[in-house]
Amino acid sequence: DLQICQHRAPTCCTKKMEESYQAAVRRERAQSIQALNFELKYMIVGHITAFQEAFEALLRFAENRTSSLFETAYRPMAKEAAEPVKELFTDLSLYILGAETTVESAVLRFFDSLFPLVYSRLINPGITDLSEDYTECLRLTRQDINPFGRYSKNMVTELSKSLWASRMLSQALSMGIEVINTTEHAALTKECSKALVKMQYCPHCQGLTLIRPCAGYCLNVMRGCLASVSELDAQWREYISTLEYLANEMAASHDLEIALTGIRNSVNEAILHAQLNGPQLSATVDKVCGQPKQQEGNLLSDNIAPVKEATETQTLVMAHASLNNKRRDFINYMKRSRTFYASIAERLCDGDLVMRDSSTCWNGEDVV
């Protein structure tokens, strides 16, 4: 009653043993594919972590630089500006990690929050009435009167260029993990399970427990079993090329580090522009939002601990070098894995599975 290991000679197998063998080959094949995938997956996961750590270091540096601008040049509004600055960098971080947001919405939201502070602390420092309604009116007015000139739009353009490649690379790395996980759990067909049993365990039914499959026979069986996985070859090669392109984009003109550290200067230029046009802005705001209450003299800000900018420069240099080195090492490794899916059958037949240095091997029917 054997279905797979039928043979002319007497056999020591039963139908139940054949079923056990089928379960065994499915388990073994999953384990061997996992072992092949492990190194590749380890490299991608490691790079995702390294990329995020280096990126977070750059973000923290750029955020501290931007905060220090308010603490040194615009102290009257420094305490209240801390939250909008923090929100801006949180939004940019989420954008790179693939959140459903845009650089434009993050930057414009920041300038919406900044305008009420610039208006009430720098342009008209005597204002005391900053009710929710008045603040909201100032926020909405910002979109119409454009107090920060071209600087807000320029900041969107610069950041969008450099952060796009980072976002795409981050998403591409996550996609790579998904592809590998999917191939790991690809189910074997019944025909494949039977072919693997015939190749690996049918010799046992003849008492030939030490004989192993012929190399060519193993390759034929494995290629048949893994035809759907090896079809990924063309897309995998294209995927590696895309990773290379994105890494080059990040390292090229749209440099992530330059764009992030340039936020401070963009914000400074934007505030200076608003101050220079203070009288015209006040006239327009008075028409739209009404005249707020005034108080004699400037408002004093709370004491603020200044950011130590000098020590942060070293952090930037280290993060920059770290990101570039890791990016380069990773791409070189991934280029070597171009043929990963094309050669998966060969790699599974390598090692202990087949007979290498012997004149006899199993061909699926007999010892040859």
UniProtKB/TrEMBL annotation:
**Subcellular localization:** Cell membrane
Any Pfam family: Glypican
Give the coiled coil ranges: none
Taken from the UniProt entry, a GO cellular component term is:
cell surface
- Which keywords are on file for this protein? Cell membrane, Glycoprotein, GPI-anchor, Heparan sulfate, Lipoprotein, Membrane, Proteoglycan, Signal
What does this protein's UniProt record list under function? Cell surface proteoglycan.
What is this protein's name? Glypican-5
State the species of origin. Answer: Struthio camelus australis
